[in-house]
Amino acid sequence: MNFRPLMSRPGLASKSTPRGFTLIELLVTLVLVSVMLVLAAPSFTTFQRNSELTTTANSFLATLAAARAEAMKRQLRTFVIPADGNNWSSGWVAFVDVNSNVSAAALSMDSGDIELVRGNALPASIAIDTSSATSFEHAGVQYAMFNGSGFMSLLGGGFPAGGADSLDFTNGASETRRVLASVAGRVRVCKPSDAGCSVAAGF
């Protein structure tokens, strides 16, 4: 008995038609994505500002550390001062006082000095909070100075009151980072709300 293979006839085979998204499905997807972006935007902005704040504070910390290291290396005074001479928000510059002629009346770098680090002006979202910090200000002049032994000292002799100095960076009401520097030259970054994060607490 011969069996003939069954041949599928045209029209009997099931047709598979590709199916895409409908207009309603696309609109719903777009709405959901928009809602998620709106909800995530504040968190991303906060993260970005906190990241800028931490980066700025660490940059100032690194500048202080570099100035101290160079002071000990060269056995000369080094300074960290505001870039414009008055306001830390303008940035800062660290230099070696090669000719030992820096004074409170002439707190600036001249052609005979060696520039070590120059920091950029602060981002618009970051400010210097002077309400609770000493802000590396002495007798109305803002600076940090390290002598040849690596100790943080003052123009005219002596050391900062309390044995330490500090500068607060803030991005508004949300976050603050404090850079602490001790007379011995130790430096660190902390939050003012943390225990021990004050000039009085020391190191």
* CATH-assigned fold name: minor pseudopilin epsh fold
Any idea how many domains? 1
The span between the termini is 103 Å
- Backbone shape: elongated
Report the top-level CATH class: Alpha Beta
Largest sheet: spatial strand order: 3-2-1-7-8
Number of strands: 11
* Superfamily (CATH H level) name: minor pseudopilin epsh domain
Task: Specify the number of helices.
Answer: 1
Element-by-element helix/strand order: HEEEEEEEEEEE
Based on the coordinates given, report the CATH architecture: 3-Layer(bab) Sandwich
Largest sheet: 5 strands, antiparallel
Q: If you average the pLDDT, what whole number results?
A: 85
Helix share, percent: 25-40%
Q: What's the alpha carbon Rg, rounded to whole Å?
A: 31 Å
Pick out the low-confidence regions.
Answer: none
Q: Report the portion of residues in β strands.
A: 15-25%
| Secondary-structure class | alpha+beta
Explain this structure to me?
With 203 residues, the protein is α+β, with helices and mostly antiparallel strands. The chain has one domain (24-190): minor pseudopilin epsh fold. It has one helix at residues 23-74; strands at 78-82, 92-96, 114-119, 127-129, 137-138, 141-142, 144-146, 152-153, 164-170, 176-182, 187-190. It has a 5-stranded antiparallel β-sheet, covered by helices on one side. A 4-stranded antiparallel β-sheet has the order 4-9-10-11, covered by helices on one side. A two-stranded antiparallel sheet has the order 5-6. A hairpin with a 4-residue loop joins strand 10 and strand 11. The longest helix is centred in the N-terminal third of the chain and has 52 residues, at 23-74.
